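Re-run requested by the PI after the first attempt was lost when the workstation crashed. Everything re-entered from the original request form. Ligand of interest: pyridoxal-5'-phosphate.
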Amino acid sequence: MKSHLYPTYARADLEFERGDGVWLYTPDGTPYLDFAAGIAVCSLGHNHPHLVEALNTQAGKLWHTSNMFRIPDQERFADRLAEVTFADLVFVTNSGTEALECAFKTARKYFASKGHPEKYKLVTFEGAFHGRSLAAISAGGRDAYLDGFGVRVPGFPQVPFGDLEAAEAAIDEETAGFLLEPVQGEGGIRAFDVSFLRALRKLADEHDLLIVLDEVQTGVGRSGQLFAHELSGIEPDIMAVAKGIGGGFPMGACLTTEEVGTCMVKGTHGSTYGGNPLAMAVGNAVLDIVLEPDFLPTVRKKGLKLRQKLAQLCDENPDIFEEVRGEGLMLGLKIKGDLAEMVGACRDQKLLVVAAGENVIRLLPPLIVSDEEIDDALGRLSGACTAIRETATKSGN
Ligand SMILES: *Cc1c(COP(=O)(O)O)cnc(C)c1O
């Protein structure tokens, strides 16, 4: 039968009925090892008892009231984020795109409120991905996502990845700041150098510009730090967060300092659903776990182990892999051959991975992945290599 869904996705003909930890199960009970985690969303795996309990308890009490009223769990969520980050102010959204939209508006309003409404541009970097709204695709700057959607939202000049000189040269009277992912996700797990991030922060400070970080994918423990910018020691002025922060519940947040965010006065922004009681029950439950003292050190340990194993895999299969990249449990393998073939070969081994730019497969397991599951994934990746080689031999390549 003809599908009534927008044909916007090249969906695999595969469905899952339930999940448990790092595992997903098809309706016939076949287990898949989930190193995609819904694209870095299911940070605590599937069916986490603490999250399920928080959701179920809240579901029986109150779902939604609107931001016309106080939402104590939203206040608590913001307090907790402010406590552990650079930020003083938090706006809660339903998605990453909306968190970025709030970030763009905050940056523009900040300068407008200081008497500089002409400063509205955020300089971006090639390979960026910031979501799919009109502003977000304009910020991402990728033609394939922009084609056919009319005039670009102005104000997002783009310079080559990691090019400090170009970033400096892009500054003009209208520049408000820089926008970047500390590690590009969709772009192919490309990390900006620590030295670049520090130099960019310095450049921004010299010119009184803002650093806006998109930590939608890198945030909430994915990099082994609570937020990836901590690896470089720099702090942003505005930061967009989503994905892992909801553990699978659609949720995001825009964080900023008091200095910058105070301009967003009554009526300047809003959201019907953002930060509703149901979402905040889950958001706080995710924080309960991620903020436990042992959580991030364990993520770092697992990340190191996975990285070492992947490096070994690359050494053993130089015909297939080029390199390992990334931080923490946000890792990528650059493939020499066909990317879709590799993703498919992994899927045949019942291992879920995500394709990214620059011919990279992303490994984004739930942050609770065990050592055994890491070993298991490596076995499946080896199996995928063998299968790809066999196919190549059969077709006479
Ligand atoms: C996923 C993602 C977004 C968009 O988030 P949505 O929740 O899909 O709107 C923005 N930026 C980055 C870096 C992302 O990975």
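Saved to the shared folder this time. The CA atoms of residues 330 and 364 lie 5 Å apart.
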